Amino acid sequence: DVLASYLATMRQSYILFGSMPQFYNTIDGILANLVGSLMTNRKVKSSKKASIEKSVRAYNLGSDILCFPEGVHDKLPNELLLHFWSGVYEIANRTGAKVVPIIHYLTLL
Known about the structure:
By secondary structure, the protein is an alpha/beta fold.
């Protein structure tokens, strides 16, 4: 998702990254580190609040922000998405930024 989203925007963007294990143990974390990332721990309320400030600052300095406000998909069979993180709208409200949804559609050949 990280690489596909970054390529879809065709712009330099910071990625708001909320999973420490995924950042340090997967290719998504390596890619996020290469293109630029804003770290947060989505399980810690104060860290999520601080990420809003970081994102607002980055946006006001001219950067775009990629955010995955649901965090993860297919958590459980009856819970396909986590609760939507509303901080993305606070960032947009404080900066005047547009929220542009990106949908990934995968098909098997």
